[in-house]
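User: Can you predict the 3D structure for this chain?
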Amino acid sequence: MRFNGKIGWLSVAKIYVTKDGDAWDVVSKIHYGSELYAHDIMTANPQYRDHVLLPGNLTLTIPDVDTQVFPTITPPWKRYA
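Assistant: Here is the predicted structure, written as structure tokens:
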């Protein structure tokens, strides 16, 4: 069973314990289904921002992010079709 991080109106941040070699975009993909939210995880964990590949056993805070509001960017060649 997965905990979605919400209790009524109260939003609770989740945690993730890294595996050796995890990257920010991979952690984002695991938790949000998209790599586009890696910056949100990095912002919530500024003490580890200098790492490109994360060492194992770090405890990251995974913020509650509204994944429905991320703008979709249409490539230039599709904008005027």
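The mean pLDDT is 83. The first strand starts at residue 6 and ends at 7.
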